[in-house]
Amino acid sequence: MLACEYITITLKDFLFNAGICGFIKVLQLEGFDLEEQETGNTIQVPVSLLKNFHHDYIKALLNTFQNETLYQSLINQYEQFARTKLEDISSEKYENFIRKLCDKLESASYKSGYHIISAKGDTFDVLSLVKVLKKEKNITKSLNISSDLIQYMKKHCETLCMKDIIYTKILLFWQGIAFLNSSNSKKDIKECYYKDFVKSTLEYLENKKKGSMQCIQCGNPINTTIGRSMSWLNDVGIDITRKRSHYWNFNPDTYICPICALVYSCVPLGFSIFGSEAIFINNNESIHELIAVKNIFEQGGEKYTTLNQPYYEVLYTFIDDATQQQTREIQNIQIIRRIPYGSDSWKYAFNTLSKPLLEILHACRYNFKHLLKWSFKDKDTYINVYQEVADNFLSGKNQYALVHTILQKVFTENLKAPYVKDILAIQRRRMRRFYSEEGGSAAMYISQKEFETAYNEGKKIREQYAGTITEVKDRNTKVNESFRSFVYPLLLSLKTKDKAKFNDTMFRFYVGRSESIPKILIDMQQSDEKFQMLGYTFVAGLYGESLDLKKNAENTINEEVK
User: Fold this and answer.
1) In Å, how far are 60, 342, 348, 462 from 269, measured between CA atoms?
2) Phi/psi class of residue 271: alpha, beta or left (left: φ > 0; alpha: ψ in -120 to 50)?
3) Burial level of 490, CB count in 10 A (0-12/13-18/19+)?
4) % helix / strand / coil in the chain, to the nearest 5?
5) Which of 34, 27, 99 is nearest to 59 (CA)?
6) DSSP one-letter code for 151
């Protein structure tokens, strides 16, 4: 008989909170009612719901990730070929499919899966049939063989698809235990999980809690036999058996109880995984808010699950949707990412979107949208402008290095850059808000009027030059070429903050036109911030191409952030 009927789970650190989200997702398959059992930052979980937790855990993983696996992709590809007339099948695409199918079926993870399946009584010889398939040149016979293999895969989805999920999703967060213990690779996946997580939890709850130590997460009494180190959690725990010197008097005390370990095992279900990256938004105000934010991703469908979609595009689309749905008041949001680091490893990356930052982000939403599909090649690297701008925005870096590179390529390589003004508009808004809040001087403040004036001064010069070129064909290219000797020293002086060099270049240019230097180009030298912002804006105007916005959108963009 169980010693207690309910267990209490409370919000803690970001990883545990992600585990709670995944934990609830599993429990809901057993009918868990969050509205009834949630009280702010805690939930009360009936212990009776844990008895089938291993079954629901596997089901939740399949429900969440199956459509993103190579397993499912191969099934979908086969079914597409099966519906297509033989004469319409592309031999190149079909050969590529057969190659991927055979590679997957001969992979080490699937071979270990066959041992699990054969132990249950299905001794179908997959590998022998794969060898036959690789040699078969007749497409009709090949499709028939493929059909047998695909049916086998479907029949044993719980094992084979789970192998994909284990090594592409779960391994991002934990390893070395249950089905990710190398000695368990040929054992039943569900049973391995049950033994290491569910059974240990139930046994802990059945017995009177005792021990001289406390779980570092929940404070439950434990001992070294009951407790578990956190070394199985990637990039979080210390291996107690190998690194005892990390602890006072060589006595490890960072143990967690089986209940908390069970919650941590659900972390992969708490993160939203997009391709090779995973995202968790840690709104720890309450469990309800945490789940509400998670559900926005879940309900976003294809909008948030495009595997090649940049992280920032997903994030900003989500934030915009969250604002429109009014799921919560705008507040500080902690964004945790699990991102690739090197060739075969990952790390956690953290960003905090403060309330002021969110407000600026919302005000600049149209500017960001203009940048969505813009990329260019710089040497051997493709620069995703949207992602670069967003990264600078979140990390507090200015945009000038990026703008400098773009404008330099505009006038030397005729790069198409119609939205460079949007990048500078984002920078101006961020400068205005934070300089005013952080006690910056008045010289740092840059108004919308100053911004537009500087841009228009450059644009006016371009239009005058363009008017002197009678041929319409390649007019923009010719104007850019004529400006190179003028723009290059301007960009160099802006990069080095050399106001004297900038003044000299402007003086010679305007004297040559028998004109005085515009007031805005003199006033902008009050500070380095104004110098760079308005200087780059002037040069952007010299390029002169910008998006022709709709009137309502323009009005929204020009609203000042208070």
Assistant:
1) 8, 24, 16, 55
2) beta
3) buried
4) 60, 10, 30
5) 27
6) H
Comparing CA positions, the residue from 410, 344, 385 lying closest to residue 167 is: 344
DSSP 239: -
> How many Cα atoms sit within 13 Å of 412 on the Cβ side?
12
Q: If you search the block for the tokens 């079954």, which residue do you land on?
A: 55
pTM score: 0.77
Q: Is 157 helix (H, G, I), strand (E, B) or coil?
A: helix
**What is the C-alpha to C-alpha distance for residues 493 and 496, in angstroms, rounded to an integer?**
5
Provide φ and ψ at 11, rounded to 5°. Answer: -60, 140
* Centroid of chain to Cα 459: 37
Interval 50-66: pLDDT, tens = 999 999 999 999 999 99
Residue 66 and residue 72 in contact, taking contact as beta carbons nearer than 8 Å: yes
Amino acid, res. 523:
D
Residue listed under structure tokens 């041929």? 471
**Distances in whole angstroms, Cα of residue 113 to Cα of each of 87, 145, 195:** 36, 20, 19
Nearest to 80 by CA among 309, 72, 110: 72
Residues contacting residue 205 through CB under 8 Å, at least 6 positions apart: 2, 3, 4, 7, 47, 50, 259
- The letter for the amino acid at 214 is Q
**Each residue's pLDDT tens digit, 222-267:** 988 888 889 899 998 554 444 444 433 434 457 899 999 999 999 9
Distances (CA, A) of 373 to 242, 318, 382: 49, 17, 12
